[in-house]
């Protein structure tokens, strides 16, 4: 069974309600039709009748709940909630109403906060910032979370490395230049995400252009310190670094460059030193290896709110909704 089919089966075992706020995009409805046909999640689509009618022509979305913010009976409840949550920042009823009518992601996050849905997927036609800002303001972080971060679930075809070609890449979507402390927190969250979604033991490599002191630079020092902090914070986790990519995933190279490591050559969770490396890395693997790339998925939010690449396909949305539903099961 393909990896994403396994995720869909998990989602179907305890169906959650996922919001799709981008009713202005045809891909939303193409994905919704497939999700409803496969019946692994309940869907709420936010939009006006005109938006829905225009973009869903010829598609069967009859199983979705369509909510028009302008007429829905709970809209005033969401406005009041928004004002209460953001009153210290100067939020007024007028501003709240204007915000949620102009940006459905805010409306969806308020639905989640009110307990009326379990997760949200956006980003097909919005930036990462526009997807994550509402959830950080409204849904907030999970208790005990040190840092909200973003990962990609990568599934590489015909690949024996990682977990039969499946990896978590972090952080590829949110934190620009994480400190050592932040890298350690990202490592812990990413290992947890891998265990939840893949169901296997995470083996975490803290990536660098250096392996075990082969290069000297402040950037290397950051990863060395992050590795030390992560090992202290997560003593039961298989984690090692600093490590070059080939030493992390190629067994022969790992044995040569990092002998004795319980991660080298077999890593399935790759922690990149900064956002440039992570973003470039996942796109290289996606485009050149023709990998499935699901994300950026968030970790550390009180409820799953996940982003999409603006270049995503409808099938990408389907996959991210399935993963979001499984994340919601674990909340």
In short:
This protein folds into 2 domains: 3-140 and 302-330, Rossmann fold (3-Layer(aba) Sandwich); 149-288, Isocitrate/Isopropylmalate dehydrogenase-like (Rossmann fold, 3-Layer(aba) Sandwich). The protein is built from 14 helices and 11 strands. It has helices at 3-13, 26-38, 49-55, 75-86, 93-102, 104-113, 128-138, 161-164, 180-198, 218-233, 245-249, 251-257, 275-288, 314-330; strands spanning 17-20, 42-46, 65-67, 119-121, 149-155, 166-170, 203-207, 238-243, 269-271, 292-299, 305-306.
Write the layout of secondary structure elements.
Blueprint: H1 3-13, E1 17-20, H2 26-38, E2 42-46, H3 49-55, E3 65-67, H4 75-86, H5 93-102, H6 104-113, E4 119-121, H7 128-138, E5 149-155, H8 161-164, E6 166-170, H9 180-198, E7 203-207, H10 218-233, E8 238-243, H11 245-249, H12 251-257, E9 269-271, H13 275-288, E10 292-299, E11 305-306, H14 314-330
């Amino acid at each position: 069974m393909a990896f994403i089919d396994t995720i869909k089966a998990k989602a179907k075992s305890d169906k959650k309600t996922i919001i799709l706020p981008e009713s202005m995009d045809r891909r939303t409805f193409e994905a919704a039709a497939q999700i409803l046909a496969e019946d692994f999640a309940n869907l709420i689509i936010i939009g006006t009748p005109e938006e829905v009618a225009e973009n869903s022509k010829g598609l069967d979305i009859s199983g979705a709940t369509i909510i028009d913010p302008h007429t829905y009976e709970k809209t005033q409840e969401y406005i009041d909630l928004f004002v209460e949550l953001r009153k210290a920042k100067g939020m007024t009823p007028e501003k709240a109403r204007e915000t949620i009518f102009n940006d459905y992601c805010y409306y969806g996050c308020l639905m989640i906060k009110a307990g009326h849905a379990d997760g949200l997927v956006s980003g097909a036609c919005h930036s990462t910032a526009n997807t994550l800002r509402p959830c950080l303001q409204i849904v907030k972080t999970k208790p005990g979370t040190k840092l909200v971060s973003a990962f990609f679930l990568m599934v590489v075809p015909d690949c024996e490395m990682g977990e039969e070609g499946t990896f978590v890449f972090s952080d590829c979507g949110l934190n620009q230049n994480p400190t050592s402390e932040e890298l350690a927190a990202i490592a812990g969250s990413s290992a947890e995400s891998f265990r939840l979604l893949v169901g296997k033991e995470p083996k975490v490599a803290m990536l660098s252009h250096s392996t075990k002191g082969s290069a000297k630079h402040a950037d290397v020092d950051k990863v060395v310190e992050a590795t030390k902090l992560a090992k202290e914070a997560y003593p039961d986790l298989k984690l090692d670094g600093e490590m070059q990519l080939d030493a992390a995933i190629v067994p022969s190279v790992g044995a040569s460059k990092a002998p004795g490591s319980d991660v080298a050559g077999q890593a399935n969770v790759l922690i990149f030193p900064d956002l440039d490396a992570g973003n470039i890395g996942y796109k290289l693997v996606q485009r050149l290896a023709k990998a499935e790339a699901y994300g950026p998925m968030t970790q550390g939010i009180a409820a799953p709110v996940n982003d999409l690449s603006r270049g995503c396909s409808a099938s990408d949305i389907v996959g991210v909704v399935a993963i979001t539903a499984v994340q919601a099961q674990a909340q």
